[in-house]
TrEMBL record:
Name of the protein this chain belongs to: Olfactory receptor
Family: Belongs to the G-protein coupled receptor 1 family.
Encoding gene, per UniProt annotation: OR4X2
Subcellular location: Cell membrane; Membrane
Coiled coil spans: none
Membrane topology, from the record: Multi-pass membrane protein
Pfam families (alphabetical): 7tm_4 (PF13853)
Signal sequence residues: none
Main location per the UniProt record: membrane
PANTHER family assigned: OLFACTORY RECEPTOR
Gene Ontology MF annotations: G protein-coupled receptor activity; olfactory receptor activity
Start and end residues of each G-protein coupled receptors family 1 profile domain: 39-285
CC terms in the record's Gene Ontology section: plasma membrane
Amino acid sequence: MTNIHNVTEFIFLGLSPNQEVQRVCFLIFLFLYTAIVLGNFLIVLTVTTSRSLGSPMYFFLSCLSFVEICYSSTTAPKLISDLLAERKAMSWWGCMAQLFFLHFFGGTEIFLLTVMAYDRYVAICKPLSYATVMNRQVCAVLVGTAWVGGFVHSFAQILLVFHLPFCGPNVINHYFCDLLPLLKLACFDTFLIDLLIVANGGTLSVVSFGVLLASYMVILLHLRTQSSEGRRKALSTCGSHVTVVILFFGPCIFIYLRPSTTLPIDKVVAVFYTVITPFLNPVIYSLRNAEMKKAMKRLWIRTLRLNEK
């Protein structure tokens, strides 16, 4: 394979060629991205400043919220600015950087969701040993492992496309640099690379999703032996996790489990895992969690009192 880079930049077609639709989308995505940053930052701030939220579950939630901010920031700002731009372009190096960080934070989120499922399994199925098993050192190691796993996943993905020859054309039918639309522009037979992408990204998503569903099934079976109040509280917590898992993994599996195939609906599906899920994360976790709502209320009261002084 010859490393030819006649292409120095890529042109995005964006979400829609219609100018009116682009203006409407600009307002919608500007609102969504602002809500993503503020909502997830509020969760991070609330967890780090509230003594009542010192359990591992909230520590993992704050880490997830931080990752959501980083993850959405790899695509949303560029998408928003391009909606008002006539020429939607990105340099070759910029495309590689966006691709790397997209899969870095996305992979980290996958591993974090798996860690959160394990935390719920220990808390519900082995409550007596929960404090011992999920101590601070273990939690730190699990989060660090999630970040390392995300890096390894992303590094493997970027290696598959970094040395591909791009001789032209340079128009990507998408709103960001993603693997499958990018491979269609390579002047090289990418069949084997397509299979490796499925093996890395698609299999990771499917296996992780299967493990998560299996863990929550075990939790549901265990809940049959608990009191009605215990079942209600556990189901409320697990329900939030399962909702986020389905919203994130569903679109990812749809996109990355199809080698050599891109569909017109892919851009809409990509919006779900790059924008909608990070937007819904603080809504789902805060509105369905009484402790989180109380802590946010206390934080708001403390802030008002400080402003009065």
